[in-house]
Design brief:
It contains six helices and two strands, in the order ααααααββ. With 163 residues, it is mainly alpha-helical.
């Protein structure tokens, strides 16, 4: 009886510790985001908010365009994320492909426009804070059997930036 109570106390204590650590990580990421946002001007914040709202609208429109077959692909738990994506993209209609392409173009343009508004101090601070956020995320995870070093992110060619 005493042994069972002790196990419950240990289990509860470990759960509590892990919960606190998880909340601290989330809080840390939120505080980094807030610090980044504090560095922006009202116009920059408005630009980002406008783009966020447009992305929500585009995402809702895209989701509404999905067929039952495409929704079934998304629900299929037997597929890996990579296979699911390949199968889903292969099933896109011309309209859906155009929607994705237009969103990518819009996002790329918004990024360029936003970068042009940054002062050199903002660039330095944002780069430092984003590097710090990236350094604390996804350490040591494996993705498709290889380390998650960020090379498989869209738009990332393994470290070469074309300069």
């Amino acid at each position: 009886m005493m042994k069972a109570t002790f196990k419950k106390i240990i289990t509860f204590s470990l759960s509590l510790i892990f919960s606190v650590l998880a909340m601290q990580t989330i809080s840390s990421q939120n505080s980094e985001y807030e610090l980044i946002m504090e560095e922006l001007t009202a116009e920059q914040k408005a630009m980002l908010e406008k783009e966020r709202e447009q992305m929500k609208t585009n995402r809702a429109e895209f989701k509404a365009s999905l067929t039952d077959e495409q929704l079934d692909i998304l629900k299929d738990k037997s597929l890996s994320k990579t296979d699911m994506r390949k199968k889903l993209v292969a099933s896109f209609s011309n309209r859906q492909r155009d929607m994705v392409r237009q969103q990518e173009i819009r996002l790329r343009q918004t990024r360029e426009d936003f970068r042009r508004t940054l002062t050199s101090d903002q660039r330095r601070l944002l780069r430092d804070r984003l590097d710090r956020i990236r350094d604390t995320r996804d350490r040591g995870e494996l993705r498709d059997g290889r380390p998650n070093d960020g090379r498989d992110r869209p738009g990332n060619d393994g470290g070469s930036n074309g300069n």
